[in-house]
Amino acid sequence: MQPLDPAAMHAELATCPGWALSGGQIERTYGFPDFLHSMRFVNELAAEAERVQHHPDILVRYSRVTLSLSTHDAGGITGKDFAFARFADRVRARMGDA
Q: CB atoms < 10 A from the CB of 33, how many?
């Protein structure tokens, strides 16, 4: 898998509200009511990351979870990163205000 060229990367980014380029990866921070909700989110992401063998960097700060995605094997941002970003957004949306 090859990294996306800048035009393709920006086109993909336009379809992922809340995500931004940050130091050679895409990144988003999600807010939750408390630590337990943050961890429920992370646990669901961890299961999917194992299933698809694509693991984000995850930073948990009590009620905030920051995901950073890049495809290390490809040396940059690929379609796999945007697919996982969309998955994370669906999980968060499904959780609602929880």
A: 11
